[in-house]
Amino acid sequence: MASSDCEGHAGQEGETFLYFAYGSNLLTERIHLRNPSAVFCCVARLQDFKLDFGNFQGKMSERWHGGIATIFQSPGDEVWGVVWRMNKSNISSLDEQEGVKSGVYVVIEIKVSTREGKEITCRSYLMTNYESAPPSPQYKKVICMGAKENGLPQEYQEKLKAIEPNEYKGKISDEMEDIIKKGESKLS
Fold it and tell me: What's the structural domain count of the chain?
């Protein structure tokens, strides 16, 4: 886990922006596929939101073969994630990855708290028009690997591990399979 790079950076300034990741982009290898400028900033908590998994308009993700991560407002709950500092030149690739143009996710601005209690404004994404559905085992694994790699609180990691995946046993993309293999060897 890298040291915190959030000090003195309260929001979207200059040539960079802060992005709060709570799904597959928790894993460094995953976010770097399309967004090589991403630099670990810190672990943070989004208060009064809850993690969910779903299929946009009821259609299963062709990339992940199951529900994909989203968040929704839920008083008293919390979502832990990673804040990445990224070049503004990566906004379009991040939006594309998240399906903003096709309406899968909408961009939201949120305030998250660091472990030290500092509040930071970040860009994040919220899925619209979805039906709850379990993630594939592979998608869940990528999220759990990212949580471990970046030192999310152990209790939250246990919650992630307890998520029941669907029963998909096939392959996902070669690119993602490679990322899982690299991550497993790095984290073992």
Answer: 1
Instruction: Give tens-digit pLDDT for 118-129.
Output: 999 999 999 999
Residues flagged as binding site: 19-22
**Structural domain includes residue 125:** yes
Tokens linked to 13: 């300034």
Q: Look at residue 27 and tell me if it is in a domain.
A: yes
Let me know if residue 132 belongs to a domain.
yes
Q: In terms of residue numbers, what domain contains 119? A: 16-187
- Residues belonging to the binding site for substrate are 19-22
| Ranges 6-20, 71-85, 122-136, 158-172: which has the least confidence | 6-20
User: Per-residue DSSP letters for the chain?
Assistant: -PPP--TT--S--TTEEEEEE-SGGGSHHHHHHH-TT-EEEEEEEEEEEEEEEEEETTPPPTTTSS-EEEEEEEEEEEEEEEEEEEEGGGHHHHHHHTTTTTTSEEEEEEEEEETT--EEEEEEEEE-SEEE-PPPHHHHHHHHHHHHHTT--HHHHHHHHTPPP----S---HHHHHHHHHHHHHH-
Q: Tell me which residues are annotated as active site.
A: 98
Mean pLDDT of all residues belonging to the chain: 92
Residue 47 lies inside a defined structural domain of this protein:
yes
Model's pTM, two decimal places?
Answer: 0.92
CATH for 157: 3.10.490.10
Residue carrying the six token digits 């096709």: 102
